[in-house]
Specification:
Strand order of the largest sheet: 3-4-5-2-1-8-9
Helix content: 40-55%
CATH architecture of one domain: 2-Layer Sandwich
Oligomer: single chain
CATH superfamily of one domain: Beta Polymerase, domain 2
Number of helices: 21
Largest sheet: 7 strands, mixed
CATH class of one domain: Alpha Beta
Distance between the termini: 60 Å
CATH topology of one domain: Beta Polymerase, domain 2
Number of strands: 11
Strand content: 5-15%
Length: about 400
């Protein structure tokens, strides 16, 4: 079914149909939309189902349906009002009868950029809360005090700032601050969802900086907040404390890799510095060990994806020693260790180069060295060897190959 046929069917039943949300925002920005969502007014749920009996209902607290429109499964919701009745994002009394207007539906949304609609079929833009002007000015502004009713909107506003390069205006920052108490009781999965999206923005540091400006960083990501004020030797890190270094490094890594695991590893690489006693500063002895403790604490509080945790733990352990090795055996162990971490050598190098500024030859050529070493396997071991003897023989063989490679000119 085409969008035109879908709209004509509903208009014939006396309803009004609107495109809403991100697709409207993106159209105003001149960006191709990823998904198209619709809102229907002036129709009961029963009437809608009579016209679209194959529509798949996915909403529980309020009706949302999946309808295939233009070959794509799109969300179709009924305009609704919301009234806060309890804690968290489930604590709402929702009304979705045919009298609810599109303006009322838009009023309950988070920021003005997401509170615009396009009425179909005419294509008329409805912008009752100034979203178009805020987009033009690069401002993220809450639509109304309803912003407070879902505390995760505070993270969403911070993520939008990182995604679009916009500024959160002061009144909205104040509303974000007021979300602190409720955020502490939100399901960690919801915070994790915003972290995922924030890490994939062009400048992920903005997400954390906005949360800090709203006094929410300690509430949401205390392991990152702990880096603030943790001074470092200026000859190695002239950009400032461990927090400033981590934010700068995260953005550099984001420029060079779109792999979310690599970006998280960059964010986590210096977590241990947040646990350095004040009397030890600006030095951070053993921060690799305390970094693993901080990562474990983060995972206990907010379950991290296994591949994120595995890669980050490897980077935490190795980021200081990796570019300074001289013993061929240790280099062999490092290169195969990178492979076991779930990262490629290229991924690992993105983080190490961002942290140290340069790479030793054995990392620059690491992929080629691994390819050469893999030509010898345990099947090539002398027949008399058994068990651990085969592993020891294989490591010796790999070291011999690496030594020859290191003697060659690049």
């Amino acid at each position: 079914m085409t969008e035109g046929a879908f709209v004509a069917e509903l208009r014939g039943a006396g309803a009004h149909v609107f495109r809403v949300g991100g697709c409207v925002r993106d159209a105003v920005r001149g960006v191709p939309p990823k998904d198209v969502d619709y809102v229907v007014t002036g129709l009961t749920e029963a009437e809608f189902c009579a016209h679209f009996p194959r529509a798949e209902k996915i909403g529980k607290g309020f009706p949302v349906y999946h309808v295939r429109i233009g070959g794509v499964r799109s969300e179709v919701a009924f305009a609704r009002r919301e009234r806060k009745t309890g804690a968290g994002y489930r604590g709402f009394d929702v009304t979705f009868d045919p009298t609810v207007t599109i303006e009322e539906d838009l009023y309950r949304r988070d920021t003005t950029m997401n509170a615009m609609a396009v009425e179909l079929p005419a294509g008329t833009l409805l912008d009752p809360y100034g979203g178009q002007a805020d987009l033009a000015a690069g401002i993220i502004r809450a639509v109304s005090p309803h912003f407070l009713e879902d505390p995760v909107r505070a993270l969403r506003a911070a993520r939008q700032a990182a995604e679009f390069g916009y500024t959160v205006e002061e009144k909205t920052l104040a509303l974000m601050r007021a979300c602190a108490e409720e955020l502490q009781h939100e399901p960690s999965e919801r915070l994790m969802g915003e972290l995922r999206r924030a890490l994939m923005t062009p400048r992920p540091s903005v997400f954390f900086r906005v949360l800090r400006a709203a006094d929410l960083l300690t509430v949401t990501f205390p392991e990152v907040a702990a880096l603030i004020g943790q001074t470092q030797p200026t000859e190695f890190h002239p950009e400032g404390d461990a927090y400033a270094h981590t934010m700068a490094m995260l953005d550099v890594v984001a420029e060079r890799s779109d792999n979310i695991i690599v970006r998280f590893a960059a964010l986590a690489h210096d977590l241990g510095k947040g646990r350095t006693p004040q009397e030890m500063l600006p030095h951070h002895y053993r921060h690799e060990e305390t970094g693993l403790e901080a990562l474990a604490s983060w995972n206990q509080r907010m379950t991290l994806p296994h591949d994120w945790k595995k890669a980050a733990a490897f980077v935490i352990r190795q980021h200081m020693r990796a570019p300074r090795l001289t013993h061929p055996g240790k280099i062999v162990d490092l290169l195969f260790g990178i492979e076991s971490s779930g990262l490629s050598v290229t991924d690992f190098n993105v983080v190490i180069r961002a942290d140290h500024g340069s790479l030793p030859r054995y990392l620059r050529c690491g992929e080629a060295y691994l390819t050469a070493m893999r030509t010898v396997t345990g099947r090539d071991a002398p027949p008399a060897l058994r068990g651990a003897e085969i592993g020891a023989w294989l490591r010796t063989a790999h070291i011999a190959i690496l030594k020859k490679l290191l003697l060659e000119k690049e």
